[in-house]
């Protein structure tokens, strides 16, 4: 069997195309890469392990006898496999990533370097606390920054992602209500302009969810909210700045009304980068808010995570936060409050959300980023992200329909819609056309309150030149759609793959690789 | 402010395009009383790369890292050697700085990796399918209990005493709000596992039995009889693996007919990192796919008929379903899944089996040596690379005293089970390929001294 330089076997090539076909299926630097199951072998390994000592097995008669079916590759083949795969990805290191509400910004490599210091990367979560004072110091220092930047009273550090943070905040609200004998409050109000995860979280914590409509200008309808408040309402979950890219002007009035009615205010802090250093949510009456460290404080998204979602809490909710947490004493020593040490000091904690201390590796990265920017730099972050978003909004409002262009300045993101495109053209065509221009598309079809939404968030780490080129590209694609350019409907044309059949994937799910020879024999 | 590329002339030019006279005009919607007029006081200003590096390095130095000490901690987080190429490859910007692969045409790298990861995990756990990772083992375990509730329409979960106490805590927290009732008990410090007791506690209200393999004391048990007993009552068996390297040496839970298998994948490719980020593994039988939380990558074809991959079955998910979502999962642990998958590819079956054999042999040898220390008794008959010692006195102060000498001796059961006096003398010791004979000797002498 002949094997080419990557270990790829020619007879396994995808069907050869007649036009511009190559023997390998590659096209110069655009490389096809088979699966490890097609090129690896179960007796191949890229590691060397010490020979085991001769001892009597203690596996309790459960030694594995069946093969596992895990192919291995040598180290050079492994490096090549994953390097080739990496080249099939768009990433912030390659260019502007205008995903609204997802906040893809430059990821400084100093963050990575610091997270890999052995003193952080090579310590165990259950080491005696005296041996991890530096790690607890990171948690504590980051906690202080988060509290001061948000004007809040406490922070729960352990939630592992934004949605996990939302759940943490809602559980704090629930615990606080139960402690007050108000456990009968079963309704959480969620404005239409909130993130889709918000109602999911509230429902998951056992609440019934009621929508509050948005006004024509894209903000919470304060009158509708006030009208719905009552003794059955536990609280409101609001996203501010909201998913229409707008600041909720009535935030303080909303908080006051919710508090007067006996409820609590949860704020989705996913878009905190637009206001950090300029507005403290605590000053607006927020009781709980999660902060997506990966968004605001630039920990890399990694193709889907990990995230990290600490939750800042008002004085009213702080006693109910989850275990474990840190306590800094007068002499600088930091102790850990967990099941072992909690005793009767924090009887109201609602419990534990995950096995250990949360996303320590993310804390290290976020603190590194925060210290690099400082209080002055973080304020500049908010200013530049808002400036960049408004520059995009005003530069394109005559090209694409901008539904909230008259609702005041946008915050971190600008929203457009497919209104005004000819029949048969929609947001997806604009998005896929942008791929051919070398961009990751903006967020599509979100928020739900805008038909055919296109949510563009440039972030603060783009230069004016980068914005100008992106504006030019988006304008060009939009003009092509308006002119009825049919080629747009089958875009992308130049990506490693053309439009993928998502319906087929959902109808006949193939979620693991099966040897085609064996699969055929089984049929 | 080296991360911000706009110059002052850029900002002025952009403001004029916008038609604003100053940046403050862009914040007019913020109520005046909530607008800060300058940087928040009593927080430091921006700092150079050198200065930040010094500060962080000083904090890192205050920790005793595993590499600096004879190190024996496990209980849900394990220290293994990670080949250099793993960390190199996950730091490639196209992986590190990519988003969730919602635009599949330009995310095939991440998607193909996730498809490979799902297949590797399913084969390792012995399940038909696996998802594209969860936050970690403890949250995956709780999500599995919720999944069993949806499948069986019953709400009583029976948790083994051998299940990691933090996993039990997470499940208890969540059960308070989801209405599950949990039948829990602490482990008993004997060589026997609690399989018989678990079988006896299954009834017609039981949604699932959750059992850890190997368990918190390191013991292993044949899960087949438990699976049979569950299935006889139409309940599900959920197996939890916190040390996946063990499955290179042990029968997989799927082979013993577990319905859902969850795990903590940290051992393979992901370092200790003081507890996170880690990578949750989750696999199940085919018939339960649509009740399974988390992301899935699926194979499909593109408009030219070429094989490609997409995220699929997302109609279950939190970011789409609003109040109808079935789990708290909104993303996966993509980069950690990548690290797991690369390390697993480097190992291959041959490497994983060799690694497991070495772990087991070194653990057996260490257990025998430590059991010779006066005042130390080995609890386990069976184990993989982690076992429990019963000391002649409370283990917690011993662990602390040894830490003062620079030895990280293991996890005291007193820390994990405060208030359970019967467990206070227990010390859980993990031994991996990174542990040397010299480390074991150092621990043995230090224990001898401490217990004398």
From TrEMBL, chain A:
One of its GO terms (biological process) is glycine decarboxylation via glycine cleavage system. SUPFAM superfamilies: PLP-dependent transferases. It is an enzyme of class 1 (oxidoreductase). Keywords: Oxidoreductase, Pyridoxal phosphate. One of its GO terms (cellular component) is cytosol. Transmembrane segments: none annotated. It catalyses: N(6)-[(R)-lipoyl]-L-lysyl-[glycine-cleavage complex H protein] + glycine + H(+) = N(6)-[(R)-S(8)-aminomethyldihydrolipoyl]-L-lysyl-[glycine-cleavage complex H protein] + CO2. It comes from the Bacteria. GO terms for molecular function: glycine binding; glycine dehydrogenase (decarboxylating) activity; pyridoxal phosphate binding. Residues 1-23 are annotated as: Disordered. It holds the Pfam family GcvP2_C. Its EC number is 1.4.4.2. Residues 185-302 form the Aminotransferase class V domain. Residues 383-482 form the Glycine dehydrogenase C-terminal domain. InterPro entries: Aminotrans_V_dom, GDC-P_C, GDC_P, PyrdxlP-dep_Trfase, PyrdxlP-dep_Trfase_major, PyrdxlP-dep_Trfase_small. The glycine cleavage system catalyzes the degradation of glycine. The P protein binds the alpha-amino group of glycine through its pyridoxal phosphate cofactor; CO(2) is released and the remaining methylamine moiety is then transferred to the lipoamide cofactor of the H protein. This is glycine dehydrogenase (aminomethyl-transferring). It comes from Sphingomonas panacisoli. The lineage of its organism: Bacteria, Pseudomonadati, Pseudomonadota, Alphaproteobacteria, Sphingomonadales.
From TrEMBL, chain B:
The lineage of its organism: Bacteria, Pseudomonadati, Pseudomonadota, Alphaproteobacteria, Sphingomonadales. GO terms for molecular function: glycine dehydrogenase (decarboxylating) activity. HAMAP family: GcvPA. Residues 1-446 form the Glycine cleavage system P-protein N-terminal domain. It is an enzyme of class 1 (oxidoreductase). GO terms for biological process: glycine decarboxylation via glycine cleavage system; nucleoside metabolic process. This is Probable glycine dehydrogenase (decarboxylating) subunit 1. The glycine cleavage system is composed of four proteins: P, T, L and H. In this organism, the P 'protein' is a heterodimer of two subunits. Gene3D superfamilies: Aspartate Aminotransferase, domain 1, Type I PLP-dependent aspartate aminotransferase-like (Major domain). Keywords: Oxidoreductase. It catalyses: N(6)-[(R)-lipoyl]-L-lysyl-[glycine-cleavage complex H protein] + glycine + H(+) = N(6)-[(R)-S(8)-aminomethyldihydrolipoyl]-L-lysyl-[glycine-cleavage complex H protein] + CO2. The glycine cleavage system catalyzes the degradation of glycine. The P protein binds the alpha-amino group of glycine through its pyridoxal phosphate cofactor; CO(2) is released and the remaining methylamine moiety is then transferred to the lipoamide cofactor of the H protein. The keyword Oxidoreductase applies. PANTHER family: GLYCINE CLEAVAGE SYSTEM P-PROTEIN (PTHR42806), GLYCINE DEHYDROGENASE (DECARBOXYLATING) (PTHR42806:SF1).
């Amino acid at each position: 069997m002949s094997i080419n330089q990557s270990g790829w076997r020619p007879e396994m090539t995808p069907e050869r195309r007649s036009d511009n076909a190559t023997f390998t299926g590659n096209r110069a630097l655009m490389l096809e890469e088979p699966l490890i199951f097609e090129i690896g072998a179960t007796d191949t390994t890229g590691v060397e392990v010490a020979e085991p000592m001769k001892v009597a097995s203690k596996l309790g008669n459960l030694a594995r006898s069946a093969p596992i079916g895990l192919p291995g590759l040598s180290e050079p083949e492994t490096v090549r496999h994953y390097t080739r795969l990496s080249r099939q990805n768009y990433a912030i290191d390659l260019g502007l990533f205008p995903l609204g509400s997802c906040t893809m910004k430059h990821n400084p490599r100093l963050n990575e370097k610091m997270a890999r210091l052995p003193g952080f990367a090579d310590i165990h979560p259950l080491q005696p606390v005296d041996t991890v004072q530096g790690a607890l110091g990171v948690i504590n220092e980051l906690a202080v920054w988060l509290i001061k930047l948000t004007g809040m009273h406490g922070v729960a550090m352990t939630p592992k992602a934004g949605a996990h943070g939302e759940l943490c905040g809602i559980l704090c609200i629930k615990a606080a209500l139960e402690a007050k004998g108000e456990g009968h409050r079963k309704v959480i109000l969620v404005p239409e302009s909130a993130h889709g995860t918000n109602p999911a979280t509230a429902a998951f914590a056992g609440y019934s969810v009621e929508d509050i409509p948005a006004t024509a200008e894209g903000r919470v309808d304060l009158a509708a909210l006030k009208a719905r408040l009552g003794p059955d309402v536990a609280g409101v979950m609001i996203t501010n700045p909201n998913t229409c890219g707008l600041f909720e002007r009535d935030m303080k009035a909303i908080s006051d009304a919710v508090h007067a009615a006996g409820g609590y205010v949860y704020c989705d802090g996913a878009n905190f980068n637009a206001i950090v250093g300029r507005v403290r949510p605590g000053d607006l009456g927020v009781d709980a808010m999660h902060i997506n460290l990966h968004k605001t404080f630039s920990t890399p998204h990694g193709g889907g995570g990990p995230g990290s979602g600490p939750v800042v809490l008002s004085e009213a909710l702080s006693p109910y936060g989850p275990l474990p947490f840190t306590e800094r004493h007068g002499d600088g020593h930091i102790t850990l409050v967990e099941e072992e040490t909690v005793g009767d000091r924090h009887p109201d904690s609602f419990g534990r959300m995950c096995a250990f201390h949360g996303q320590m590796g993310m804390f290290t990265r976020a603190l590194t980023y925060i210290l690099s920017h400082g209080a002055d730099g973080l304020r500049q972050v908010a200013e530049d992200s808002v400036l960049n978003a408004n520059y995009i909004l005003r530069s394109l409002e005559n090209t694409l329909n901008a539904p909230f262009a008259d609702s005041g300045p946008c915050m971190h993101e600008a929203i457009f819609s497919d209104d005004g495109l000819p029949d048969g053209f929609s947001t997806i065509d604009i998005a896929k056309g942008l791929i051919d221009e070398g961009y990751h598309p903006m967020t599509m079809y979100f928020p739900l309150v805008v038909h055919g939404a296109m949510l563009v968030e440039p972030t603060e780490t783009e230069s004016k030149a980068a914005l100008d080129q992106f504006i030019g590209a988006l304008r060009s694609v939009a003009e092509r759609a308006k002119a009825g350019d049919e080629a747009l409907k089958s875009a992308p044309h130049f990506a490693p793959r053309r439009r993928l059949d998502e319906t087929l994937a959902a109808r006949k799910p193939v979620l693991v690789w099966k040897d085609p020879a064996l699969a055929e024999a089984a049929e | 402010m080296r991360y911000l590329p706009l110059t002052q002339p850029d900002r002025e030019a952009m403001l004029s395009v916008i038609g604003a006279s100053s940046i403050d005009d862009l914040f007019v919607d913020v109520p005046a009383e909530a607008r800060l007029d300058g940087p928040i006081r009593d927080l430091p200003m921006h700092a150079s790369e050198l200065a930040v590096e010094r500060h962080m390095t000083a904090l890192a130095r205050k920790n005793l890292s595993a590499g600096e000490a004879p190190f024996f901690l496990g209980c849900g987080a394990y220290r293994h050697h990670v080949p250099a190429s793993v960390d190199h490859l996950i730091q490639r910007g196209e992986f590190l700085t990519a988003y969730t692969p919602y635009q599949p045409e330009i995310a095939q790298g991440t998607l193909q990796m996730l498809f490979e990861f799902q297949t590797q995990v399913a084969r390792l756990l012995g399940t038909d399918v696996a998802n594209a990772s969860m936050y970690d083992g403890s949250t995956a375990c709780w999500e599995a209990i919720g999944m069993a509730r949806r499948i069986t329409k019953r709400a009583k979960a029976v948790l083994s005493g051998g299940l990691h106490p933090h996993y039990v805590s997470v499940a208890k927290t969540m059960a308070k709000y989801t209405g599950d009732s949990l039948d829990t008990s602490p482990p008993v410090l004997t060589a026997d596992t609690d399989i018989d007791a678990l079988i006896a506690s299954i009834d017609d209200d039981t949604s699932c039995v959750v059992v850890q393999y190997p368990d918190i004391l390191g013991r292993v048990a044949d899960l087949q009889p438990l699976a049979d007993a569950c299935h006889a009552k139409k309940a599900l068996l959920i197996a939890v693996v916190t040390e996946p390297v063990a499955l290179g040496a042990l029968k997989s839970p799927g082979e013993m007919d577990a319905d859902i298998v969850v795990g903590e994948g940290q051992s393979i490719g992901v370092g200790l990192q003081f507890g996170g980020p880690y990578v949750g593994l989750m696999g199940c039988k085919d018939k339960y796919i649509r009740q399974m939380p988390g992301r899935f990558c699926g194979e499909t074809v593109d408009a030219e008929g070429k094989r490609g991959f997409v995220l699929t079955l997302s109609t279950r998910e939190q970011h789409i379903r609003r109040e109808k979502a079935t789990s708290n999962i909104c993303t996966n642990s993509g980069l950690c899944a990548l690290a797991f998958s690369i390390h697993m590819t480097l190992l291959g079956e041959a490497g994983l089996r060799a690694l497991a054999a070495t772990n087991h042999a070194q653990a057996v040898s260490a257990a025998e040596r430590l059991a010779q220390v006066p005042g130390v008794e080995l609890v386990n008959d069976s184990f993989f690379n982690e076992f429990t010692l019963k000391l002649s006195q409370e283990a917690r102060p011993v662990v602390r005293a040894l830490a003062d000498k620079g030895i990280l001796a293991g996890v005291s059961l007193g820390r994990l089970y405060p208030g359970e006096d019967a467990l206070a003398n227990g010390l859980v010791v993990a031994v991996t390929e990174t542990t040397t004979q010299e480390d074991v000797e150092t621990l043995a002498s230090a224990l001898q001294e401490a217990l004398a």
